C-alpha cells in the first residue's frame, strides 16, 4: 500500500522553510511513490518558488504533491501514516487528536534545522515528547554519518556534471536570464540577507585586475547593493559597472533554475539552508550567510560547519575561507579576506568538488526518512 505523508510547513524566513519542504515532498512522490500532502500557511511565499501555485485555492495538485493551505481555522482531517512537523512547527491541536484516534499510530517526526554540531549525531532519531500515546521523534539533517543526510535528488550530480561540461547549455541558460558572460570574467551569484560587509567586498572586486560579474537574484541584499551603487532603484537585468566589477540583478527564479545558476558560477554566496545545500551540490567554492539567531547561537553553527568543511585544506586556504565566512557573517570588512581567498582559489575549487562527492556518498535525506519509517514499522 502507498504510504501517506503529511508535511507541515510554517513560512518563517521567506523561502528557506518552504524551499526544503517543497523539495522533500516532490522527491518522496517521484522517487519513493509516497502520497504527500504539503500543508503551507503562506502560499504567496510558495508562489515565488512555484509560479503555478494558485494562492486562492485551499487545495491543489502540483508536480504530484497535494498542496493544502494550512488554515487558521482547522477543519477535521484524517491523519496520515507519517507526519512531519518541519522545523519544529506546532501542529494543529485537532490534527494531533486525529493522530491519536487512528487505529494504527502514525510516525510523527520533527524535521529539524540543518546543523554540523557534534551533538546532532547523538540526538538524531531519538524519541521526543508524546501526545497521548503518539511518540514524536527527532530527525536531524546533517553532514556526518549518524544523521539524516542532505536533500539530494537521484541523478542530481550527474545532471550537474553534464551541464558544467556543456558551455553552450550554460550560455543558453544565462542568456535566458539576460546574462551575457564575458569569457575572462569570474561569475559570482549573490543571495544573502542584509549585510554591512557588502560594500567592502564590492570595493575589493572593483579594484581588482580580474573581471568579476556578480549576479544578484531579487532578495533582501538588494538594498545594500543599491547603496553601494548610489542609485535610487535597481531594475532587473540592468548592468552596473564600476572598475573591474559588473553587477546585474536577476529575477527571482524557481528552484531548478537556481540550481543551474549555481552550476554556472565560479563562486556562490548563499543564505539560509536550502540554497546553502544546493551550493554544496554545485561543487564550487561558496560563502554562507547563516540565518541570524538570538544570542548569536547561529555563530556556533557556523563554526561547527567550518570545522568540518575545512578539514584537509592547507593552513593558508583554511585561514582564508574561514576568515571570509566569519567577516561576512559579522558584517565586517571583507577586503583582506577576499584577497586571501582569491590566492587560494585553485585549492578551494578542488576542495569544493571533493566535499560534494564525500557528502554524496551518504544516503540522501528523503531516502533516510523512508528508511526510518520502514525500520519503525
Automatic annotation (TrEMBL):
It catalyses: dTDP-beta-L-rhamnose + L-arginyl-[protein] = N(omega)-(alpha-L-rhamnosyl)-L-arginyl-[protein] + dTDP + H(+). Keywords: Elongation factor, Glycosyltransferase, Protein biosynthesis, Transferase. The keyword Ion transport does not apply. The gene is earP. Belongs to the glycosyltransferase 104 family. Pfam families: EarP. GO terms for molecular function: translation elongation factor activity. Protein-arginine rhamnosyltransferase that catalyzes the transfer of a single rhamnose to elongation factor P (EF-P) on 'Lys-32', a modification required for EF-P-dependent rescue of polyproline stalled ribosomes. The keyword 4Fe-4S does not apply. The lineage of its organism: Bacteria, Pseudomonadati, Pseudomonadota, Gammaproteobacteria, Pseudomonadales. This is Protein-arginine rhamnosyltransferase.
